Structure formats: structure tokens, C-alpha cells
User: Fold these one by one.
Assistant:
Number 1:
Amino acid sequence: MANVPAELKYTPEHEWAKVEGDRARIGITAFAQEQLGDVVFVELPKVGAKVTAMKTFGVVESVKAVSDLFAPVTGEVVEVNAELPKKPELVNSDPYGTGWMLVIRMSNPKDVDGLMSAADYEKLTAGGGH
Amino acid sequence: MTDTTASTPLKRTPLRDVHVKAGAKMVPFGGWDMPVQYTGIIEEHRTVRRAVGLFDISHMGEFEVRGPDALTAVQRLTTNDARTLDVGQVQYAALCYPEGGIVDDLTVYRLAADHYMIVVNASNIDKDWAWVTSQSTGRAEWRNVSAETALLAVQGPKAEGLVGRLADRDVTGLHYYHFARGAVAGVPAIISRTGYTGEDGFELYVPAGQAERLWAALIEAGRPEGIQPIGLGARDTLRLEMKYALYGNDIDQTTNPIEAGLGWVVKPAKGDFIGREAIEALRARGVARKLVGFEMAERAVPRHGYRLMAAGGPVGVVTSGSFGPSVERSIGMGYVPSALSAVGSELGVEIRGATHAARVVKTPFYPSHTKKA
């Protein structure tokens, strides 16, 4: 069973968001990285870019597959994980920690109310994803 | 993250349940339910380069042909010169259509004086069987032994020690592209010094009913060597780093052996064979495009079907691409106009609407460690 931290919010597309005031730190879940396999490339927007809730903001590539990344919230990118271009494998080894992707300053912090709780996300992934 | 679902039931190798029990991620491949990975593609890839890996490739097809005209049949069907094969030797070749397009690529084993085995790609078994039996004449009896034959590949620098310990005969003297009959862990086998990884190793042809016993014995005995089961994901990255062609990706009925870089297995001096005239005309005239290996300037991954660009326009197509775990960069193969095929030529790969820089490089991407004759 994949790890689903209780303090985070989730999208049905397997991204997580950690709310830090009006900011949200985001990444992909342990379940997502397991499904993808070895991550070899992450394509992310630059600081200053705008992202929109449930629209794609980037791409994660594993050896076998390409997957779109969906923004959990709307806002402006204020930080990008500079380690990922060199060490995309952090997404596999530490998806909720050093494998984070962006920090977004939310246009509407209420967006997070629409995200899934850990309990709901755990139910979503309980079937194993297939 | 969606798996494609096959419309017909997937075929299973004799080891399918063993893979599921071992926790493999199973995927459809060429109509077969196959393990794509057990622990992770990169780790499995590195295990084969550094130690030894065990592959179930029982989905491959095996046809036997025997009789006084068996050699004549093989000579007519394949592009290489099977006359040069001694009993105990293996040869890589192509099967071609009269127009020069590739039916399949294969290996030819000379089992006895008038007895050959050809080993074909899993997804082509039915097509190839129809082709070889329809094109073969004379006293040559064909048998499709695919279902009764399992095939295990033991690949990596530690393969020789492991197989040598379990075999009832010496294997150290077995040269690359040679085989011998023997028993491995008590299982009767064709022990073939061949592979699809660029590492030293063996391919073991065994009765389907004994595959599980041999698999278990190799896993158990290979513990000191660090053996791991290896899925099709790593098989693909290993072969890509060697620029070995994969039928259906890099070669098919619309490509010919010359443009695919397989001119070395086309031997017109041997006499007539299907496709000879067309292929020799291509060789004489020169081909318009060539299959090249390229590496990306950055990590973005080229994939099958992406466009290759030059001077702002499309010039070709990526046939295979991945991150290469041993070369630690993104690499690919694709067809480009011959004028752009030289090492050092600058290309672009169109990835999600943006052109990413790539360069034609010398191949193999990673040095071969197969046993030299």
C-alpha cells in the first residue's frame, strides 16, 4: 500500500499539495511514482509562470511512459525544484520530500477545499490502479 | 498511466505465473502477457551490465526445417549465407519480401547436417510461419516448435560462471554465435552463446514443461552472483544502447536491410534468395535514408513516432528512444536522409511541439561486451 500522508491534499490525477499559508507546494504521490516506474525527466514551468487548477503544468517521463502533470490549484509559480533536472529519480525515492516540483502562490486559497483528503485519495488508489 | 487493453486473450509463456508470483508488472507485448519489470527498469538494466540477469523470452518463435533440401529452403528465404554455417553455429539474418521489405529478422541455427532451426520475433510467429511454409519448396519439412519450446536468456558478465556451474559440459569454450547441446541444472538444453543485450551470456532453449525448474535453479544458484529476473523494459533499453533493431519499431515491411544498416547480413554472392534483386539494386543505387543512432543534448526523451527535424522542417522519424541507463543520457534511433546520417550531424527531435537538439553519434552507444570468437 502506497504511502498517503494525512496532512496533504490530493488530486484524482495523483498530485499532492501541501498548503503553506497562501502557497501550495506540489508534487506527485508515492502511488503515481510507483505506477510510472523510474522517472528520468521532469519538464516544469519557470518561476513566474501561471498555472491553472486541473490543467497540465508539465510532464513527467519514466523510461517507459510520458504522463501529464495537473496543477492542484490556480496561481503563480514562485519556486521550482532546481534539483530535479539533474536528479529526476528524487521523484521516485522521496516523492513527498526532496522530490517536490513547484511552489505555487495561490490566486484563490479556497481552491484547496476542492481537493481530495488523504482518506479519499487512499480509497481511490486502493484498487491498485488497474 | 493507462494500459492498453488487448481485444484478444493474451498468450502466456510457461513462466507467466512465476512472474506474477515474483511481483512483476505484467503488460501486453505482441499479443503476450509479459513482465515489463520486477523491481525497476534502471536497476534491472544495471544488473545485466554489472552482474547477471535472467530473462523469460519464451514468447519468441522457433521453427525447425529438416530434409535434403533444408539448406536450399533456408538459403532461398534468408538474406545471409547459411551455407557457411557448421553444425553448432548460429547466424543472424533477415527474411525479406521480393521488393526488399523486411518480413522479420531472425537467427538461424544449424542443428545437424540437414536440420536447421530459425528463431523469429514473437509478434511475427503466425505471419512468418505462413511465409516460410508458402515459399519453401523441395524436400524440406517444417515444424513450428514455438509452443513446446521455452527460451531463457542468462545475460551479463557473470553469466559464464553461473551457467558453467550448472551445465554438464564446458561452456567457456563456446564462442559467440555458437551453441552446444547439453543439460543445465539437469534440463536438456540448446546452450547458445547469443543475446540481445550487448553483454556476454547465453540463450537456453528448453522443453516448455521444464522451464520453471530451470528458472528456479538459475535464480537459486545465481544468488552469489546477484542474479535478478529482468523484464522487457530493461531488455529494450539494453538492446537500444547496442543499436540492435527491434522489429515493428526500427524495421518492418516498409524498411529494407540496406537503409536499416543490415547490409552486412545480405550476401548476394550466395546465389538467389527472395528480395535479392531489389536489395542489390538499392545497394548499387544508394539508399535515400538511413537508420542512425542519435543522442539528445538534454534529458527530454525521444519516443517511437516523434518527428526528426533539420533546418526547421521534418526530415524523418524516431523509431526507438529512451533514457539509456548505462550511457546516462537520452538516446534514440531513427531514419534520416542519407545526407544527414554522418556522425556529428545536427538534428532536432520534436517533443510536445518543441524541437530539442540531438546529434548523430557513433554506435553502439555503449561498448559491446559480447564474447569474441
Number 2:
Amino acid sequence: MELRIDRSGVERCRALAAKIVAPVEAFIARHSTVSVERAVLRLLGVDGVTGDQVPIPNALLDAVPAAVWNHGVALAFGRALAETGLDPAPLGEAIAAGRFSLEQFSETPPAAARGALRPYVEAALKRIGGQREVRERKLAELPQLPPPLLYVIVASGNIYEDRTAAVAAAQAGAQVIAVIRSTGQSLLDFVPFGPTTEGFGGTYATQENFRIMRAALDEVGERLGRYVMLTNYASGLCMPEIAAMAALERLDMLLNDSMYGILFRDINMKRTFVDQHFSRMLNARSGIVINTGEDNYLTTADAIEQAPAVLASQFINEEFAHRAGLPDDQIGLGDAYEINPDLEDSFLYQVAQAQLAREIFPGAPLKYMPPTKHMTGDVFKGHLIDAMFNLTSVMTRQQIHLCGMLTEAIHTPFLGDRALSLENARYIMNAARHFGDEIVPRPGGIIERRAASVLQSCETLLEHVAAMGLMHAIEAATFADVSRTPDGGRGFEGVFERAPDYFNPFEEALCLIATVS
Amino acid sequence: MSRFVKPYGDTLDDGKVQLSFTLPVEWSEAADEAARQLAVRMGFTDVQVADGRAIAPGFSFFVVYASTPQAVDLEGISASSARTHAMTMEEIDDFVIERIGRKIRVAGACIGTDAHTVGIDAILNMKGYKGDYGLERYHMFEAFNLGSQVSPEALVRYAKEHHMDALLASQVVTQKGSDIKNFTALGELLEAEGIRDRVVLICGGPRVTNRLASELGYDAGFGRGTLPSEVAAFVAVTLADRLRPAVLR
């Protein structure tokens, strides 16, 4: 299936996205955040919590004045490593316990501080690279079923229950398991520690929970002869830290959007822009596929009206991702099946939007989200709408397919709901596997005209944003009818300017790796 | 006079129902029989296990058709509803001008950690829901949508500081009773601050019923499919009723 689309219009949109992102990237290069610095500490090997359950990376940062942050916490930490001779983990604990202060080490010259960090930086990068190789080897030995990859969510609040549900879902055909986070975790300015058994609407993302789920999925993957992917959320206030933990524990995908937190969680835009950049640098190195959150434009407003905003956001997300070193095959741009099912030809409009994204971003593993807004307690109708969504996905060659649940509007999925959902998807996708290859949209027909109009409106929208500047455009409620100010929202106090000698050893190393490859 | 009803399959009083459920057992003929016996223990007769199959190792799924001997007397049933004052936006605005004489101030939020604003947005935002405009569009309402993840404390503070006439609290996530906890906390805080009687207190969400709302001490509860005009009408009428004695004085 192929639409005739205005290729020069696509090029103009890409150029506009570059123009929009460039000044934001300049801002990013001059700033860092507390979460970026905590991610650096975590990668160096600092972990654990204090007696008051404060994560040690937070405790370390909170114990020093912001003036220390400006140089990059790594520099102070490197001096402490050099002068105490301790390893990062015990050093972190000692500082958190008040036995040392990060400020007391001032003897060591910067070059020696960097030298003291080097083995730990190399070890972290080696572990991340090693996890990437393990994934590649496993994928070769345990090949996945053809896309769309069936993706389901587990969300019990208890990691051990989640594990049971995830294994059952994998055995029922799921190829990607996402552990949805406890509602509200995106607003925590720290990452909880250890295995967790209580959460609301989801389970806390912790490094130990990542490990538990990774081990379970590796085991079931071996048994099934196909690799089962693990997903979590690098969104909210701790994007870089989650990306670091995910890299260390071999997650395969992360929800990671350049604007989602700003618009839908009222997280400060400067914080988000800086955080998404470093988290994406890490994702690029760890081989993690990001999933962007364009579905949110559709769940909060009319899906027909918001189609150009979805496309514009895809262009902007792509540009930000490229700037952080992510290649196309790690950029899972998002979309969702959210047009009102009562609308005549709603299916045609869905196909138009999905196919438009497919052709504009040919190398991207597109992420397709299921109907949620128009799902009701009528599970029978819901199952039918999900079937239409499944058909659209397979015919437009979407890559990552979040399976819709017939009980979407009722409860977090039961084990049986997930099994029915997977059966639905498997049936439709098998029955219509090559349907898309067999049909040609009528030239000048409804699908083609709709796609053309969305692309055109997207260009107009991007022109408007480029003229205003992205931060001001967000302030003017250009996206999702939500207005956010550059210095408003959560987490702004954690954004700071870099001093001329600012040092982030991982950023430096990752830039070097990116340049070499 | 009593009027008993039973579920209807294809004959009056045949009592037919469909059930589906999962059992944490490996599928086998014995699992089918277990499903059948379970339905019998539930009180059903003519139990037919229409489908039984493995959905995961250690789990089986069943579709069961059966008859229930139970019936209910419609005469003995009353379900309260807050959707009683059918008026259009224009009629509501006119009603407010005539009976209240000033704009009604309404604040709404998704309280607690809940981030699902689809319900509160449908009621408050200009655009509304199903072609029924949201409260922001009304001339005689001043609507303040505080968005998601607003703590009950913050909502109460806002209500006090900005002199709200009505508060709308929305909850979509219901896992482990988090919705009830948040609704309860909001009600108790308003009482503690001594302003419970000053506001029309409304809860909403896909699992909310008006019965639940009255149990929680709210003035009304609105569930799935609620239109903004239904909420607006309830607020206007309730507020007008409360203000009446003052007018007489």
C-alpha cells in the first residue's frame, strides 16, 4: 500500500523541525539538571538508600550547594575517589552517612579527578555495551515473531504479581511487556529503591524491579524460543536515571518523549528538554528503542482535529532524537487509534494517518496505541473496535503494537482479558498479514485526501512554532491546548547552568563513541 | 404490586446468563467440569460450559451459559440519579441569572495521584463531550480546571482562597480503593476547614455512582457518559435551593 504524498512538503516539515529544535539544543548544551547528575552517579556505581529511604544519589546531590552542581557532580566525586581511595558504592554510602562531605576534597587537580573516574566510566560503558551485545545475540538465537510486535501492559502494583502476568502474557503470544508505573511516579524527583509490592495503577520502576522482570522474561524467552522484550518509562522527572538503569539492566524499550512531560504532567520544559537529551544519548548507546507519546494528543482532545499535531510532534521528536544520536531504527514514533468510532469512515481516517506516518518515517519502528477514549463498559463493542485497530496496524506495517483491552474502560487488565486481546490481534494479523501489499488507495480518494490535508496542516503548524520558538509556542498553548511557561511547572529548581569547566564523563564518552561510529 | 423479573434469553423467565472467567488451573476435561460445578455452586442451573481452553500454562478460560433461578422485584428498587434536571446550556444560564443573579464559580480536578483527566476535561473544557459544551463555555459559570494530580489539600485550599461554589473531584484509577480514599479525604478536609456546607461537592468517574456519592457524603456523583449540562444543571439547581432561605431573609 502506498499513498502519493507531497515529498517536498515532508522535506519542508523536516527542515522546520530542525529550525525549531536548534535553539533548544543550544539551551540544552549550556545546562544540566539534578537528574542528569544523579544518573552520572548511578552509572559510576552509586546506589542504595539512606536510613530514611532517600536514594544515595539524591542524598549526595542534596548535601552540596548548587554551586558544586554547576561544575558537574562527577568532578567533585572524582576528587573524593582520588583522595579516599574508596570505590564509588562505599564512597557514596560514606558521604550519605555524613562521614565525608563532597566539598572537603579540593586538593586533587581536575585531571587527576578525571583519571580517578575513568575506570568506573569504562566499566559502566562496558556493561552497557555488553548488555547490548547480549540482546543482539539473543535476538539472533531466539528470533521474534514478525511485526507488529504484540505489546501488553502489566500493572498490578506488585512486581511479583506482574512477573506472573508477564510470563503468562508472553506464553499467550506477547512479544513486549511493559510494566506500567505507579500513578504519580513521574512526579517523584527520585527513583525508589528495591523490589516493590505496592503501587497504584502500576508498579514502581526500580532497578531491582527491572532485574526481577528481566530475569523472568529471559527465562520464558528461552523456553518459548523467542526473545521477549521489556519496556518501562523514562518520562517524568527522572528520565536520565531511568535510562541509565534501563541500560544497565537490558530493558529493550523506553517510553521517552521530548514534550510529553511538559504538556501532560506539567513538568518544567527546560528540565524536560535537558533530561530527554541525556536520556536519549544513553538510549542510543544501549540500543534501547524509544517510544514517543503522541497518543496523548488524541486521548485528551478530538482525534480528527489533533492529527496534524501528532505528525508535528513526530517530526519534532525525530529531530530531538537524531540530535541525541539515536538512529531511525531506535525511534518508535507514536500514534493512536482514537477517532470516534461512530464517525462515518472513521476507519479510513485511521488508515490515512497510520500510513502517512509509515511513509514519512520509513525507518522508524512506529508505535501504535489502541483505542481508549471511546472504549466503554460494552466489552463486546470494545473487542470489535480493537479488531479494527489490529487490522489498521497490520495493513500499515506498524512495528510496536500495544494490544487493546476489551475491558479498557473497566479495570486494569485481568489475565483473561490479556489473553483475549492477544487472540484477537493474532487472528486479525494472521488473517490480513499481506493485505496492505495487495491494495492501492484510490488516487484522489478519501484516504489520500485526508493524508494530504494532515500533512499540509502539520506544515502550517510547524511554521507557526518555528516562527514563535518552541518554548513560546508551548506557552501559547500550541500543543494539546495546554499552556506552560518556560520557568513554570515541576522540577525547574533542578535545572542549572553549566560552569565553563562543567564535566560529565558519560556525555563526553558517548559523544566520542557517536563520532567514531 | 410486585413485579418480578429474571434475565431473558429467548423465553420469558428462562433466566439465561452468560459468564466468562479464568481459573488458575491447567486446562483439561476436569477443568471444564470444575467450571461447571463452580457455576452450579453460584446457584445456576442448566449450566453449559460452551468453551473451555488453555490461555496460559496453569490458566484456563471458560465461557459458560446457564440459568438463574433468582428474580428481583422491580417495585422494591430505587436508584438515585443526579441527572434529574434536563436543561440546555441556554436554559441553565437563564436559570442562574434569574435564581442566583451572579456567576457560579466551579473548580475541578483529578485528585490524588490520578493523572487521567479525560473525565474532568469532558465536563469543564470549552469543547465538552458528545456535542454538549463544557462549563467553560457557559456565560454564568466560571470554571477552573486545575488538571491532574491535585492533592485534596490543594483543592480545598483553592476552594477557600478563590471562593468556589462547587467542587468537582474526578477519579479514574480505582485500583485498591485509591478513589474512595481520595474522595473521603477531600470530604473530611472540607468538613475540617468548615466549608463543606458552602460548596456543592460532586464526584465523578467511570466507576462513580450517585449512590456511592451519597455514601461518601457528597451532593452528587456522576458516572460514565455524563454530559456537562447534566452537571451544570445539578450545580445550578442545588445552589439555588440552598440560597433560597437567604433570599427570603
Number 3:
Amino acid sequence: MRIIKLRHENLYPFLEIISKDADLWAPVKRGDKHAYNLVDDFSKIEMNTTRTILPPRKIFLPSNFNMFNISRMDYTEDFSHVKKRILFGIHPCDIHGLLTLDNFFNQAFPDPYYIKARENTLILGLSCWPDEHCFAKSTNTHIIEEGYDLFFTDLKDYFIVWIGSSSGDDLIRRKPELFNENLTDEDIKTYIRWQAERDKAYKWDLNFTAMPDLMELKYNDPLWEKLGSACFSCGSCSCVCPTCSCYNVMDQPSLNREDGKIVRHWDACTLEEYSEVAGGENFRKKKSDRLKLWYTHKLQAYISKYGKPSCVGCGRCIDTCPVDINVRTVGKALLGEEQDVFWARLHKEVTK
Amino acid sequence: MKEENRIITQANPFIPEPARIVRTYHLTEDVKFFQVRIVDMEKALSFRYRAGQFAMISVQGAGEAPFSISSTPSRPGLLEFCIRKAGTVTNALFRLKENDLIGLRGPYGNEFPVDRMKDKDILIVVGGLGAAPLRSVLLYCLDNRDQFRRVSVLHGAKRPAEMIFREEFFALKEREDLECLLAVDDDDTGSWTENIGVVTTLFPKLKEIDPANTYALVCGPPVMYKFVINEFIKLNIPKVQILMTLERRMKCGVGKCGHCAIDYIYTCIDGPVFTYWDVIHMKELI
């Protein structure tokens, strides 16, 4: 892999050049949190963020978009959500999330809506520093070897830039003089030190190797009923999860009844009507069953199918769930590490 | 995105093919029969499916839903569906008349393993609308009658008026190369000449079966599976030879929307046909 250096002061000039013919998206401040947004003022880019509120999936598959315009059974594809984009500042865990979605949307019948948006977006990753919720080291998604066009490791005065694709190399060639080709032994030492310290900064971990078996062994465990009784069925966990991709499709007829649109919007398996079929039969009426499905997918399913969990350790569910049902609390509960405080609070919520 | 994942040209798997309703009539008060043909003749003839697969049918403005194909692949050209009026899409379908257009895409899902079922006894247990998917495999077996050994059919409905394909099944009773037993839970006509009772009451009337060489197929309302499978198990039919086809909510049919997920599989890709072993293995199936 070609690896070069970029001094901090050269970042904006570089972004300036490459964003001339593509929309630049990067994390910016949103209240006291952060969100990926279209950027025109580089100074608004937040370089030292942890997770954004929503994962980058929203750029490739917006929460609501039009799939088709129909006129008398004639379907015209609508790819207006696809734009030439550069996504800067995406962390390794989120790139892993995209790789998981890539696998999913490319299998069997490839999904053109995801794939076209993905093909038109360049990924410029950025290193990060964990906070108390991050656990990407447990899912082995704190390091990234593929899935980016460029990756910037921030070593305080300068970035080490890893060139991951031919398109990434083309970006560098727009103004090669901004970069320094000579990576010294001292740089490599600095990088190794940075990596060791960063790895040490993870504050907790979860044994993911144990999860598939535990999901099987504890399928009928009372913990699911306890969790189910506290769950709000709000679907927030699915909105913020980088690897959740379920959607619903709706016809939107126009008043003349001859034309119409078909729109696709995010859905969540934790919502009550998710598995309901016409006639009223609901295959997952109970919240505990719906939660179990969600965690089967995060902790078990992808491990059997793709050899890695679909959880990427970003910590968004920990940040988001109003009653603290998340990969940490569920994972720990599966491991039998009962957290009295958590269960006590759940109990209080339920009996309130 | 990885190089090997990049695609140059891509047919959009979500675009339906216009299909014309050739015939439609009521099978029961709330179930209608639809015979359709894809408008593009070349596509109509090249629409290859296998017994047990399903198609996504759409009515513009109302939406799209999955339906089992009730016709047999051994009679290509026309597709048949047996549809109960239950939701938005089916209500819209019921308003359509012969010659109207619908959208159709597929076929999707797996199939009944007719090759493995060759030279075996076939026992088909139908409950209510379970006739929709099972008619396909039944007609396939009958069209290729010499490939299968004994064929037995048990068909149960709530009341005589609710028996789907009643005439077809009564006609089967006349055939000598298969055993067909019919039952209704409750006879409100006073003129029902067949058995009265749930479908499992027909099992004692079956001639002795050869369990190791029997494939048992079942489809019906969710409540029925447990009781029928119990009968199969009592007959010592191996779990991998007990086959069922399941209903789930689907918005795409191609393994993307997630609604038909069962544990870690998708009904639309890995199903809708499952064995009883799958059911034991994956706790959410029935």
C-alpha cells in the first residue's frame, strides 16, 4: 500500500481541491453531538469527534427516498439520492459498517439504490480516539485494512495517509505537492506508539466469540422477558446502528390515479407491525421476541454467515437507548455478568 | 467499495413485469382465483419457476405483496394464484377484472425438492388456504405421475363453502392412482358427504404408509402445523422429509427489506419451503 504524509495545515487546501466536483460530507456539530453533513466551510468539520448521531448509511440510503416514478405501469427509476460525494472523517468502525452493508446489498439480487450511491462516494477515513462507550476493539473494527479510498491517521502535527484505492490515488495526484512521500523511521515509531496508546484507551470489552453460542443457549432465558418489558419499541437502536438496513416500501399514488411514486423508508424490526401480515397475524407480537431478533442479527447471524459480528462496536446503541438496552447490557447479561444497577433500574421503569 | 463488488450494468430487481389477468373468479366468499399472463410473450414463456416458489404481485397505487404460485411449472405460460382478501393489496386485486393489468416479479424463494421426492410416497396435507402453494406441487406430481409412488392428499376446511378448489379435489377422489380424503370442521349445509372433523382426524383413515420412503408436505393456518406435524412424527416420517411452506411479511422478495427474517435466515431467499428439522433448529419458524 502507498503510504504518505500530509501536514495539518495542508488539509484544507487538499479538501478545497477535491471538493470542487463532488459534495463534501463530514462530521459537524449538531447540538452537543455530531452529525455527518454537507460541508461548505471546512472550519466546521469536527476532527476530534467520536460517533455521529446517525451512521453514514443515511448518505447511501436516506431515511426516505423515491425508488420509482410510475405512469400507467411504466416504471422510471429515480436515482436522485445518488450524487458524487466525498465522505471525509469516517471512523474505522463505520467503514466496517459499510463493508457489512456492501456484503449484504451485493448478494443474491444486488440493490441498485445502495450500490449506485456507494459507487459514487469516495471514502476518506479518519482515525479516532475511543470514549467510554466505544468497544470497536472487541469487534476488531478499530483497525481498517480495506473499504476506504484514503485513510488519515492523525498524529498531532501531521497525518499518515494510507492510499486504499486507485481513486484515492487520483485524489492525491490532484495536488501531490501538498503531500510528503518520505515516511521516516521516526514517523513509524510515532505511529506504533499512537496505536498502542489508542488500543489501551478502550475502557471496556465484550467477548464476541462467546455470543453466537450464548444466543442459542439462552434463547429461552427469562432475561429476554425482562428486557422486553422495559423496551419502548421505539426503533431508535435500528436508526442509529450502522448495519441495520431494514426498510419498508409504500406506494404513493397521485390524485389522477394513473401516476404515482414508490418510496422506500427505514424500518426497524423492533417496531410492533414489522412482522405483521395481512389478516392480522403477527409473528412477533411480543417485544421480547423482537428484541431477540435484533440481537440475533447483531451477535449471532452475521458471525455464522460472514464470519464476523454485524456489530461494529461504535457505541451508538449505548448512547441512544432511553432504557439502556444495548449491546453492552445485553452482551453482559448473556455472559451472566448481572449488573444489579441495570436490572434494578429496568425494574423501576417497568413498575413505575 | 471493493473492486469485485462494483457492477457495470444492473437490472433493477424491483421493477415488476406487466401481467394481464386472463381469468378471475371466486373460489370462496373471500378467496379468488387469478390466472395471469405476462404481457411480453417472450418473457411469459421464459418465466421458469419451480413448485413452491412465490411471486411479488403489485397493484399500482395500492402496493406489492408476496403470493405463492398455485399453478404447476409443468404447464408453462399461464400463472395461477389463489388469493384471500385480507389487506390493502388484496383488496385492490379483488376490484380488478379480467383483462386488467397487474405488476409481477419473481419467481422467488426455494422450492419443494421434487427431484429428491422422486420414487417416494407423497403425502400432502392441506388446511384452508394452504391449498394455494400445495396445489402447485400436487399438480406437478400428477403431471409426472409415473415419477412418484403413492400420492395421498388430506384436505381440511372450516366449512364446505370454504373449501378451496373444492371441485378439483372432488375430481381427484375419482382417480384411482391417488388417495384423496376431504374433511370439514363443521358442516352447516347438512349435505356434506365426506368426513367431519379437523384434518388430523383423517390420518387414521390413511392406508398404512412406508415412513422412511415418504415425503410429507403440509401448509395451512399457523395453528394447524403443530397438530399435523405431530401426526407425521407419530407415523415415524423422518424430520427432513417433513416439508412445509411458511407465510411471512415481505416488502422485497429478494432478501433486502428484512421483514421475513427468521433468526438468521430470510424466508424469501432460504424459504419459504422448510423441513421440520429446520423448524427444530430455528426456533422462530412456527
Number 4:
Amino acid sequence: MQYSWDFLPVWRHADILLDGVGGTLALTASALALALPLGFVLAAMRMAPKRAISAPAIIYIDLFRTAPALVLVVWFYFAFPILIGVNLDAYAAALLAIGLQSAAYMAEVFRGGMQSIGKGQWDAGRAIGLTTPDTVRYVILPQAVRRMAPVFLIRFAELIKATTLSGAIAYGETVYRASELSSQTYRPFEVFTSVAAIFFVIIAGIGFGARWLERRFLQENTAVQ
Amino acid sequence: MTYHWNFTSIIRYRSLLYEGLGGTLQLGVASLLSALLIGILVGLLRTSQPAGQRTIASIYVGFFRNIPFLVQLFWFYYAIPVLTGVQAKPFVAAWIALSLYGGAYFGEIYRAGIQSIEKGQWEAARAIGLGYFEVMRSVVLPQAIRHMIPPLTTQAIELIKLTTVASTIAYFELLYSAKLVSDQDLRPLEAYTSVAVILISILLVLSFLAARLERRLQLAD
């Protein structure tokens, strides 16, 4: 193998990749801003005793979790605008596809966290006269959030991975900018090696944080007992 | 909402969709088989005695799980010509990328399954004179497989979902065929909706079957 590596062209155009990283972060942040509140509402609906409320949430969650992310991205870009008669740019389509799907995943994290809190806590909240929303707010969530934190971080990392798919509809995130850079420099091997390294640092860092939180939570739990 | 749905172009060009479905199945089945095999190797190395083997396997897993799949796919697509001197066929690049990516995830499931069997079982089997592979085959795996099947089916479905990403390197699978069909009569809404419905239906059936299998395993416990 006589290939000679040359990262210089990539380094010289690092601003293009950095611009792409900015696009990735912008999309990740806005998708998160959509997914967290919507996920919470879906989880609350899903846990409701009335079927008329829980059924739509179950259908939403199952549908969005089953659909391949790229199919959603492409559908929201090419098909959805025709359906609603409004033009969507790549950013808006990617935000809807990835944010709405992430909301379904987040809903399951919220539900898992809230259901992990013992039934006695719910009963106790009720017994001192709290309404269900107040019980959730003052009793359940403060405890559940600590348990959910590591899982949230893992979901957050998955969200970052999913944003790369928006490159397929020409949204200017890291992979899309990398493709531009590689056709400009004829160095696809080096460009994508650099991109892989960038994502590895970010995502492995988040995973490290998740494990750290998990260990801390376990330690606190054993300290209490 | 005054849009008039018109599926005639979908029906006219349905052979493209059939071909796409074939491509999805081919890539899905091939990657699933090789990923399951790679996973076994990774899982065994991750739980083996020598620290060197464990380290190599955990570097492998860390590598493939912390880089977005699309980046890995592009990387292999461009790396293969550099390493071998021949242009990569989309199928080959996608197959290699999916196998290695899936292998990392499957490997972790095997590892968790193997580690869920108590040490006492190992010691007992060793005490009656069984070798490593004998212990695995006759004692550990038959017990561990039950814990492994639910996460394995979930991960297998995730892998099939990822085959759609191969359309970005122009591999002819279902999502790619949607693009071809929508280019024929400029009916993207119908083309992409049809393909989305087909894919989601297949995946829903698969997860329904997986859930049933899981329930049966629980009943058997």
C-alpha cells in the first residue's frame, strides 16, 4: 500500500469543517428544544389512565421509533411541504424529522424514569393533598431526573449521530460540508478520517459523562442504604 | 388541503419499488448474518481472560459505537479504493460498514449475556474438567441465550433501519427507489409516502414478532 497521507489540505480548510460543526450543533440544539418538552408531554399522555389520551401517544411513539431516521428526513423534505403547501428549507425539514423522532425516544426515557419511582411516592403525594401534576412536579420528577440523566445523555449522543443524516438533504452540517471539502481537495480519505475523529471526541465524551453520572448515582444510592 | 393524491405513477413504476425492496432485503440479511458473527467474536474477546484481547475488543466497540454510521459508511466508501485500488461497489461498502457497526453492538449484547451467568457456573463446569469452549457451548450459552434474544432482536431491527442510509452512496434499496420513482412523474409525495409506509409496515411486523418471542421467553422462565 503506497498511499501517502496528506492532512494539510484538510487543515488549511479547517474553517469549512468548523462551519459544518456549527451547523451540526445548531440543528442538535433546536431538535433538543423541540424533543424535550414534546417528549415530556407524550410521556404524560402515555401514562394517563384514559385510553383516549394514552392511545394517540402510543401510536405516535411507536410510529416515530419504528421509522428509519433517514426516511423521515427525506419525507419531511420532499413530501411534507407538498402536503401542507408550505416550502420548507433543509434546516426546517431536518429539525422536524429529527426533533419529532427524538421526542418519541425522549418520551420513553421520561416514562421509564417516572415509573421507576415507587408507587408509595405517588400515594404519599396524593395523601398530603397534592394534585397529580403537583405530585409529578414536586415529588416524582426531582427524584426521576437524577435516574434519567445518564439515559438522557445517551439519547443526546444518538441525536447528534442522527443529525448527520440531514447532510443527505444538503443541510450544511459536518458531513455535508466534509463532502464539499473532499470534492474540493480530492482528499476524501483524510477529510472523512478527520470528521470521524471530531465525532468520536464529542460522542465518546458524552458517553464518558453518562457513565460518570451513573456511577455517582449508584454510589449515592448505596451510601443512603 | 386541496392536494390530490395520485398513485398511478407509483403503480406504473412499481417494478422499481420491487427492485428496491430486493436490495433492502439483500443488504439487510447479508449484514445481519455477518454482524452477528463478528459480534460473537467481539463478545468472546470482551469476556476473555487475557487483558490484551479485552482491550482490543473494547477499542473496536468504542470506535464503531461513537462515530455516526453515515460517517463510517462514507469513510469505507472512500477508503476501499485507497486501500485496494479498485472503486468500491455501493453494496460492498455498505455491507462492510453495516457488518462492522452491527458487530460492535451485537458484541456488547453477547458480552452482557455471558456476564449475566454467575461465576459459580463457570467454576462448577471447570471443576468437572470442561475446557473453555465446552463451558461456553454446554453451560453458559444455553442459559445466556434467553437474556440475549430480546436485545438482539431490537438491535437487528435497528440494523435493518440503517440499510436505508446506504441510499446516500447510491445503493439501490427501497429509499433510493423512492427517489427514482419520484423523478419519473414528479410525484415525490406519493413516492416517498409509499416507501415510508412499506418500510414502517415491515419494521412494525418485525417488532411485533420480536415482542411475541420475548413474551414466550418470559413465560418459559
